[in-house]
Amino acid sequence: MINKHKKFLTAAVFCAIASTGFVLTASAEETMTHDLDEVVVEADKDALPGSYVKTKGSIGILGEKSILDVPFSNMNITQKTIETFGGPNQPLQSILANNPAVRIQGTTLHNDFSIRGIKGNGTSSYLNGIPGLMTQFAAPTFMIGDIQFISGPNSGITGIPSTYETTAAGGIVNFVSKKATEAPLTRYRQTFSGKGSFGEYLDVSRRFGKDKEWGVRINTELLNGNTAINSNDMEAQGIFANIDHRDKKSNTNLLVGYRHLNIEGGARWFSLKAAAIGKEITKVPSAPEASKNYGFDGLAKESEGYIIALNHEQKMNADWKWFLNAGMNSNKLQRNIIGASSNFVIINDKGDVSNNLMSTQTVTKNYYAQLGINGNIKTGEVNHDLTLAFDKA
């Protein structure tokens, strides 16, 4: 019996060695080749896999830069991210929260958020690199193509905004408008969300001229209905036109737009009465119900406004160019009926709320202009990217 097992084992080892030798000999002597069919991949070369973020973006007066070429935290999210995580009746924070440095602090009423723990909102944001063109209230995203973040205090590389609510100390949020695509685009989209919010959106893009040097993109919005919060109704009407021109020596972009927004109900901000903490308030209140409206009948925010934003770059030679960024925002908050400081103050463990109410109107007009030059200087083996700019807000 033992001899049979030894013979079988010897035969098995011999077969294994013979097989290995055959494989090695064959792989050494034979080289098999096969030509695959041509594969064409269409994608944005600057976008990472999934196309949710880009590797390049506009970094203020530094111009277009890769995230690897700047000494600070930078993130550029794409239109796909905006459409995937945002919604016509959702607060802007649902999109901005894709940046780990951003925390949500607002509702459908406002754009409030925080970057690295420092409060910010639309008044400290930028539109096409221009400060002061957004408001603190719910921002339009239907005409936005990209959103660019710079985390940390980097106001020195952008114009200084004239804000009336917050500063950009925590970081910078720059909204970039949709521009005309190379291929003609006509897109009509309907949305249904919340408990009865119906939206209609039209996106039309065309390029004209011998070399397609002129581009026009029109975006419209018509929104009406109840959000996911009980008795929270949102209405919006807007139209934006982006016109651009490009040639070998210059690039120009002009954005003009109008939006009317009316929101009834939906207040969901709370704070604790400082003097009651440790006395009437001895525990952290439970989280509010997701679908409950904690507002009151008559609570409303209604505003309308116009935006103009102009960007121009002109080459002077191979190394130098001058640039102009200018804009204007005229907005009127027609109705603002809400609790004082826009929140409700909890006064005891039962969750009772005591608050003063306010009814105000606010008119804001912001103007901005920036003029500068940018060029390359070489000293020995070192290349310098130099920018000099003057801005006024």
Question: How is this fold's topology laid out?
Answer:
Elements: H1 2-29, E1 53-54, E2 56-58, E3 64-66, E4 73-77, H2 79-85, H3 93-96, E5 102-104, E6 113-115, E7 118-120, E8 126-127, E9 130-131, E10 144-151, E11 171-177, E12 185-193, E13 197-208, E14 214-226, E15 233-246, E16 250-264, E17 270-272, E18 300-315, E19 320-339, E20 344-346, E21 357-379, E22 382-392
Parallel strand pairs: 8-11, 17-20
Antiparallel strand pairs: 1-4, 2-3, 4-10, 5-6, 6-7, 8-9, 10-11, 12-13, 13-14, 14-15, 15-16, 16-18, 18-19, 19-21, 21-22
Describe the fold and architecture:
It contains three helices and 22 strands. It has 393 residues and is mainly β. The longest helix has 28 residues, at 2-29. The N and C termini lie far apart (99 Å).
